[in-house]
C-alpha cells in the first residue's frame, strides 16, 4: 500500500469517527444548551448573565453575526459546520432578509436541525464543508463556529469558503487556536492539547499566526484577529458543573454512559484545562473579506 493510500484510508477513518461522534453525542448538548448551541459563549459585563449559560452562548451568535455587517438587502448566509442549526435560527430570527444554509456530516444533526428550522427561511444539508456542491460566488457571508478545528484548520476549509463567497463576502471564524507551534508547547500544554484533540476528534489545532498567513495567501484581505479569551472564559468555567450534572443525570436514568458521551465529556474537561494555559491557547474571532 502506498503512502498516499495509507493517508487516504486514515482520512476516511477519521471522517467516519467524526460522523459517529456527532451522531451519538449531539443529543448530549441539550444539557449544555436549551437552544442546542454547540459552542462556548461570549460574556459582556453588566449585559450577559454569567450564571445563565444560554445568554452567553447566544451572545456569541450575536457577536459573530455582527461582524458580517448584514444590511437590509437580500442576504445569503452559509454556516460551515452548523451543528443543530442554532446560529442559523438565531440569525433568521434577527434578520428577516436572510436566507440561511447549513452544512453538516451528521445524519442526526441534519434530521433534528431541519425539524427545528421548519417554517424558517433556512435549510441544513449533509455535505463536507471542505468540498460542497454550492456554486462559486453564491454567498454573501459564511461563518464557522468551532467547526474548522475538526478538520485540523485545514487549508481546504479556507479555499472552499473563498470559492463559494461572492467578491466582498465576509467569513467569520470563532474558534480556539494555539499561540505557538505544538513543538514549542510546555509539557502540561502539550498533554492537554493531545487529550483535547483525541477526545473531541480534532485532527489538530492551528497556530493563530500561521492561520492569518493562510487566509491572506488564499484570497482573503482585511483579516482581523481578535483574542476574545477573557470574554469566553466565564462560559468555559461552566464546564465542570455541566459535566457533573450530566454524569449524575445519565447514571441515574440509564446507569451507564455512551462511549461518545464519555469522550465528549473528557474533551470538555481538557478544554477547561487548555483554557488555563493562557500562554499556549487562545480563543479568537477572525473576520476576513474575499478580495
Low-confidence stretches: 3-13
Helix content: 40-55%
Number of domains: 1
Overall geometric form: globular
Question: How would you sum up this structure, described in words?
Answer:
It is a single chain. This protein has 291 residues and is an alpha/beta fold. The chain has one domain: Vaccinia Virus protein VP39 (Rossmann fold), CATH 3.40.50. The chain is 46% helix and 20% strand. The protein has eleven helices and seven strands. The radius of gyration is 18 Å and the shape is globular. It starts with a helix and ends with a strand.
SSE map:
Layout: H1 3-25, H2 29-32, H3 53-66, E1 75-80, H4 86-94, E2 98-104, H5 107-116, E3 122-126, E4 139-145, H6 155-164, E5 165-178, H7 187-199, H8 208-217, E6 220-227, H9 229-236, H10 239-254, H11 259-275, E7 281-290
Parallel strand pairs: 1-2, 1-4, 2-3, 4-5
Antiparallel strand pairs: 5-7, 6-7
Helix pairs in contact: 7-11
